[in-house]
């Protein structure tokens, strides 16, 4: 007999506005799906992850030891697919929304203990607001006693054979249950509630992601540092753009985009601090859409993705290495432009320039390089 987790990760994330499955998005340096899976690692004997086929490769890379099943048109059908992927000796299954990445090990243990003792264990929390049951026109029909109400969460733990039969019966009737507990109730099985956790929120909207990032940041420490470096060759016939400012010079930097070496280094520092890769992967030069694009536009995109993942840019420091031209007259404008793209106060942005005393490719006037350091804060 064994205990298995069934992670439901087959959503589209439309309400989150990410353009991808929200459980594959980053939350404070770690994908949502991975956070959810790690909470179960020490409590279960195995894991089935239900995903859409388009997301399977990425999910498998995160969880290579898991079994996988494909999601269907409804959550109920997706749960059924996951149940059918369980091994025959699975005695307990914990169905959990992968979009609840802050589930605690204590809640998981309570669910397992309840299903052993009572046949089911569903995480739930008391309702804080007064609930109104209304008619279609908005007229209040009833105010149920709040003390008797609970908001169901996941995990929801059951004996898998019972849950499978309950869902199959609903499917045969063409009925959709709102959660797995409702399917068991419809089949006549008593459902036992256990204490959940208000922090075990489900990521549905961008506001949920911001709140989850704040909670995750409280748990894991709040500061992350990244370093970036880039270098580009100087060539004739190109504009010289640094920190979004076009600077008069007889040569410009060669690259697929505008080759803004300073912002490229800065973006790598920001992405590195968040463990979100680098600009080579995020904006590959093999894609025509990035040809000649302003690096300010790319930096704005990075800043938006960091904010979506729950990061705040605390401060950045950029050092440009160039023998010529003299950059001091443009520093204030470069600082302001960088701050504007990041959406932060200019006092949080430092842009500096230095020569190499004639040494190296920068000193020979063959190219320009830049270093950048970024400090990100999570949970705010």
From TrEMBL:
Q: Which cofactor does it need?
A: a divalent metal cation
Report the SUPFAM superfamilies cross-referenced here: IpsF-like (SSF69765), Nucleotide-diphospho-sugar transferases (SSF53448)
Q: List the EC numbers from the record.
A: 2.7.7.60, 4.6.1.12
Pathway entry: Isoprenoid biosynthesis; isopentenyl diphosphate biosynthesis via DXP pathway; isopentenyl diphosphate from 1-deoxy-D-xylulose 5-phosphate: step 4/6; Isoprenoid biosynthesis; isopentenyl diphosphate biosynthesis via DXP pathway; isopentenyl diphosphate from 1-deoxy-D-xylulose 5-phosphate: step 2/6
> From what superkingdom does this record's organism come?
Bacteria
> Which annotated residues bind a divalent metal cation?
230, 232, 264
What is the similarity comment for this entry?
Belongs to the IspF family.
Q: What is this protein called?
A: Bifunctional enzyme IspD/IspF
